Amino acid sequence: MTVPATPGRRAEAGVLPLDGAGVLVPAETPFRQVWRSFRKDRLAMAGLVVLAALLMLAVLGKLFTEWWVLFDPATVRLPDKLRPPFSIPSSSIGKELWPTLGLYPFGTDELGRNVFARMLQGSFVSLSVGVVAVSISLIIGITVGGVAGFYGQRKLGFVSVDTLLMRVTDVAVCFPTFFLILTVVALLPPNIYNIMIVIGITSWMGTARFVRAEFMALREQDFVTAARALGLSEGRIIFRHLMPNAMAPVLVSATIDVAHAILTESALSFLGFGVRPPFATWGNILADGRSYIFDAPWLFILPGGAILVVVLAFNLVGEGLRDAMNPKLRRRASG
Amino acid sequence: MPQAASVSVNSGPQSPLVEVSGLRKYFPVRGGLFGGVVNQVRAVEDVSFSIKRGETLGLVGESGCGKTTVGRLLLRLIEPSAGRVRFGGEDLATLSSSALRQMRQRMQIVFQDPYSSLNPRRTVGDAIGEPLFVHGRARGAELERRVTELLERVGLPGGYRSRYPHEFSGGQRQRVCIARALALSPELVVCDEAVSALDISIQAQILNLLRDLQDEYGLTYLFISHNLNVVRHIADRIAVMYLGKLVEEADAERLFESPQHPYTRALMSANPVPDPDVPLRPVCLQGELPSPLDPPAGCRFHTRCPSAFQPCSHIVPEARLISGPHTTEGHRVWCHLYDDAPNSD
Questions:
Q1: What interface predicted TM-score (ipTM) does this complex get?
Q2: CA–CA separation, A116 and A113 (whole Å)
């Protein structure tokens, strides 16, 4: 009896019958489980539908305003300035300047430009700024927080990895982010990609702190010790055991960060450091409309409302995803 | 322990599976402006013992005496400050990290808290199957079959493998943890207070399961517990710890019949016997457990020992062999009362 009999050998001898089909639950991939649970969450599904629609709109917007110009956001029609939504162009506008639908669905701005066309053009910029900037900040934040939380005790010279990374994070938090962005954007050519990157690398600190705190709490749990005792690799422990448990607060804060990123882009465009006019973004439509709050309220209600809808949709999807990924809140297929 | 004993008899004379010598673990206490080491918690101090194949060694002592630390040092889940752990003849400290990962297949651990020892986001089937998959023992349908088998072996329906930990009771979770520990067919299982969080009837079920599994697979256990009755039920030999040091080690029956060390006696007398006619006359110890930051000099127990005398406060007692009935393996005591007995080392 030096080597313990393996369980496998016993089954071959027929000691253990395989279970009856009655107790078997059909195997489901984790992705399908999450999706099934997510689908039951009506608010989250509504958010997802809105996001999908906006995404399509953004792509169509790029198509119809830049490549196949159905709606020209740059056409100036001074006689038709500040016309309310759904108004028809005045008779002084020549046929060649008539808007495609024969009316201004969202009205016109102070230069008589079609706000509908400008919103369409801006939707791509605003959405992609939100998504790309937050993706960059998530990548940096999860990496920094994960390393600090998991390898924090390791020493680098006379400081620990945790001390080093978290003091860097503190410095980044203390920095007046907006002025940093202004400085960087003033030095770099003001195109949309630079703005995405700059917003991304100035907004990762919250994520890093969340992830670090979660990792530090989780790594003391017995299931992580058990994973080490089972001889699993560190990569597997981090990505299969720690990450899934640490993602809940990160997901929710990421949805709020999307809103922040869109608003930061708006503020930059407003100050003239963002996307160059006449190129429209939701931010600079909103900024331009600020002088006409009482005369032309649609100029800030429409882009402001659009930002609100995007933020809300991201938030609902984020919270729905968080709940769907938590097995405790998920109901079984059978009941 | 008739069944367990028969296993070790059948296996014949062998070199021990686990040999621990001079094991020490000091945890640094950080503080001060720059987070320097200002003190040390002497959690484990000069612990030596060995466990034979197929045997169950019970490790008892009160909370904070270093039992759990010994268990983790044994598996090299934490690094010892000094001393050596030999497993199957190999020194664990010398293994590279990849060799250690291979070695881990031969030794496993079951934790006290069944609620934190399973990942809440993964099914129990994943938990049990993961080690098999990672070590390349089984894939696909074979993996499913092995997981089902393991679940059934610990008394759970195989179909439960697609369920999540929160859908189980504490006792069921502990069964899952045992199945996970057994997945790689280990030789040694460290049970770190494995039944302490369960209620009495479930404790009995799990203990019986552990014993059946031992008979079946020839497992070796280090059974860590503060509950003397539980240890008596399952252990072949028992080692008693006090403040990071062993004070006494003997065969289970021998230890319960004639405890020699004053601390063991106090521990035994405080242990409730489920018989109302047996008078309960505990040897009441005075004072509190001293701090492991600054353990007493000499014998660590001398501050509370009812029979302390002159050498106790400044000379560290050595292991002494006591002879008597039932002493097949030797009965070791670390106490100056037995300084006449032969030195065990």
A1: 0.85
A2: 9
